[in-house]
Specification:
CATH class of the largest domain: Alpha Beta
Distance between the termini: 41 Å
Order of helices and strands: EHEHEHEHEHEEEEHEHHEE
Shape: globular
Strand order of the largest sheet: 2-1-3-4-5
Number of helices: 8
Largest sheet: 5 strands, parallel
Number of strands: 12
Oligomer: single chain
Structural class: alpha/beta
Radius of gyration: 17 Å
CATH topology of the largest domain: Rossmann fold
CATH architecture of the largest domain: 3-Layer(aba) Sandwich
Strand content: 15-25%
CATH superfamily of the largest domain: Response regulator
Number of domains: 2
Length: 225
């Protein structure tokens, strides 16, 4: 089986070497980059499964801009953001730009590897040809292909955005709390703020538009259909 390639974009050599050590111990192929330009080149040249991306990179391309460009170019690569900034806005911005997860510095290398494995389990899961295609007006949620379509046209979603949409589509008409959505779409390994759900809901509404019948149920959570 081919090694899974991970690009690590981190300008602090001590952190980069530590992440490299722990990932290689688990059998991953790791490419280290010290700035955003090098990170983008590595993604283009090596097609990694995941990018670990520090927000506070030197030069004109910080981590948020790198993430923005990756999603604008429609790369399917998963993105795990690293942030040393103790502010919610950076985490929210990263998620809104299409990051799949974030870890705040200082972090445990073992926790980071666990987050990496959790992301790859979701994104590397084999497609199930017999899986259902849910339809909500012009919106189709193809679980087997992991694809959302509006009027037959595919719409690029980050891995966690699709996980949330698919879980909602599996429970049409039900009002689901944020905790239920986290447990169902992210799994038991999720650690973080329940408001992460709100960020991903905003992204789904922005990308799928008014055709998506996703309603806020005040005091509870969200309902699709």
């Amino acid at each position: 089986m081919a090694e899974t390639t991970i690009v690590v974009v981190e300008d602090d050599p001590h952190i980069a070497d530590l992440v490299d050590l722990y990932l290689r111990r688990d059998g991953y192929r790791v490419l280290l980059c010290a700035d955003g330009e090098a990170g983008l080149r590595a993604v283009h040249d090596h097609a990694p499964r995941l990018v670990i991306l520090d927000i506070g990179l030197p030069g004109d391309l910080d981590g948020l801009e790198v993430c923005r460009r990756l999603r604008a170019e429609d790369h399917a690569v998963a993105v795990l953001m690293l942030t040393a900034r103790d502010t919610e806005i950076d985490r929210v911005l990263g998620l809104e730009l299409g990051a799949d997860d974030y870890v705040t510095k200082p972090f445990s290398p073992r926790e980071l590897v666990a987050r990496v494995k959790a992301i790859l389990r979701r994104t590397d899961a084999p497609a199930r040809p017999a899986a259902p295609v849910h339809r909500f007006g012009e919106v189709e949620v193809d679980v087997g292909r992991r694809e959302a379509r509006v009027g037959g046209t595919p719409v690029a979603l980050a891995a966690r955005e699709f996980d949330l949409l698919a879980f909602l589509a599996d429970h049409p008409g039900l009002a689901l709390s944020r905790r239920q959505l986290l447990d169902g779409a992210w799994g038991d390994d999720w650690v973080g703020d329940e408001r992460t759900v709100d960020v991903h809901v905003r992204q789904l509404r922005r990308k799928l538009g008014d055709d998506l019948p996703l309603d806020t149920v005040w005091g509870v959570g969200y309902r699709l259909g």
